[in-house]
Amino acid sequence: MILRGSQGRGTPPTPAGALLTGDFRDGPFVGLRYQTPSHEGFTDETGQFSYRAAEAVTFSIGSLSIGTADAAPQLTLASLRGSDAVDAPDPFLPATINRARFVQSLGREDDLRNGVMIDKTVHDVVGEHAPDISFECDTESFEKAASVRMVFSELGLRFRGAAEAGNHLRRALAGIKVLRNEKIPTRDGSYLLADVFCPVDGGPHPVIMRLGVYGNAFESGSIFNEADHQASEEREAAWFKGDAAGGATGAAMMLRYSESAVSANASTWVPRGYVVIRVDGRGVGNTPGRVDPFSRQEALDYYDAIQWAADQPWSDGNVGLCGCSYAATIQWNVAALHPPALKAIAPLASDSDAYRDLAYPGGIFFGDYRRWWWENIVLKASGSGEGVDVIGGMARRPWDGAYYRGDGLLSADFTGIDLPVLTAVSQTMMLHSRAGFAAFSQLPSPSKQLLVLDANYMSYLYEDCLPDQEVFFDRFLKGQEPEEEPSAVRMVMRTGGGGFYWRNESAWPVPGTEYRTLFLDAGSPHAQESITPLSPVRIEVAEYSADVRASAPELPVAVFESAPLDEDIELAGHFRASLWVSSTSEDADLYVALRVMDGEKEIVYQTRDPQSVAPLTWGCLKVSHRALDSQRSTAERPWHTHRREDAMPLLPDEVAKVEVEMMAATGRIAAGRRLRLEISAAEGRGISPDPDWERAYDESYHREAVNRVFTGGVFPSSITIPVVPAGPARPILRR
To answer: Distances from the Cα of 618 to the Cαs of 110, 362, 549, 621, 637, in angstroms?
Structure first.
């Protein structure tokens, strides 16, 4: 039996002394006893209580006082105070957490979507143990109290953890209600599971969604049992208290800024009037099926999830996608299917070409990183030991073809995407550094924006560029026009030593870009100027060992340096190296890195990684993959076919011309500094942030091999740099 108060829901009357109604934002709490100086009863079936203006209201279960508050239209359990407090309490005080934990534990649903129903049995059991229950103690003592434990044992209810209770209370204070494990039907009769975070008013509101493979637990991982659940709640509580330390590299950096890996934060977007949905793809967590990343099936599932979201009562029918890394890449695939409810996408730091970005950048297998990602992130986070053999599929297909165009993995078709797009690139990173530029240049959408970020992009996306995302979604999901039209391109202009400033442009490539060609001159080993504005007349050769493992720990490198610059220059755009090379073997891996030197000191151009030794920009190419697609190659970047039928093995000591695509980058280089170009047979310093992620090394054509770079005469090896008109002076930013 539910105990109910005598007053129903209604519009509060205006006359002085009239009876008013209130409820709990973190409820509803139905059947909770309340008492004011003028009225008493039980909260009704909607969780409402009655009061008059300027009254205090006390709530109780059985004979146990839960606390007192100044009556108001909306309260939370954080509004209640005990005998030792007179002001509104801190919601993180132990007594507040204890109250919240006790009342919430009377609910039978983990997410408390329908609140807490307090019937006569609950009142009786709590009343029996009330004399020995006190909220005025630390959370550990409250948890261990025998009387508290007895209440929930006798009622057959789960006693919630302190972190879980605090998280629910914090969300309520922010106006967030969560619906866990919502079932989304798919066209083939299966289903996906999703967590939905919506405003407490119930909607309808526009939706920001992501589908992923990193699980529904806080930060990442899946929840299969009580231990997983509590661990997730503990991480969430620590994150919001600022206790989550994060790490310097790898997964910890990916998780430092987000509630759920590479997804929009509910704490940011729900208070702004959006519903945030995180969908677990097939095989992830408790969603049935096999993990199948970047696939056509995944795109179809995403389509179904978008249309499902548009039809829910808390949705106004407008859906946008937001996320970075994996959650950005797969947005291109579903957008190309044109789900009717999809109104805008924000693929931030994505990949797009399954062969060139995901598997074989420059034709060199990205195997170690992909295995690490699959085994240590995807399978562990999803909790699944079963998935499509993605890594094996890549390894067995070293050339571009149908597998990378939908037979196995999908590659983006930008020409078919005409909805509004906000995209971002992570310049010069080992991944996510190409797709945004290709998208911006090819998308037919009349509304597209490009953000050019640093390699360490997470802080930019979740902090610096959050206003860009807010303006974008407010415009295309809510119809709110911005006060000022955003720039089509906004980029971090790096100045070296951790400094940068923001530069706005109308297009990419930047209008007025001068592609300046600088020539290499092997010359004498002691030459002072081996990068020159004019091609040398004399043919020279720079030689280095390709047998990297035999040379370890030193990496054999051919080095070319310029004279000190006689003026400041600003670079923003695509770089390339045009090299004439040979090898004593039938193939060669070329890694080309461009660095900036000030005397003997290298100037590092990363902005938010103090440990970085990454170059200004870099690129790589397997020489046998040097064949170019003449239709897709441009002045900005070469486009290699990477087709088996175009393979061009080297003949011993054959001199071949190769075009190496180097990552687009920005940088202001001060006068007096020098450019340094390094060419090697394996990754140099800072190209990979982790030694375990380096690209494949094929011993068969490296062992005992010698590589050569020819310069001058009929072999005019060169680099091309994008010099842009100097922008107005701006203050240099540093964190």
So the answer is: 50, 11, 21, 11, 13
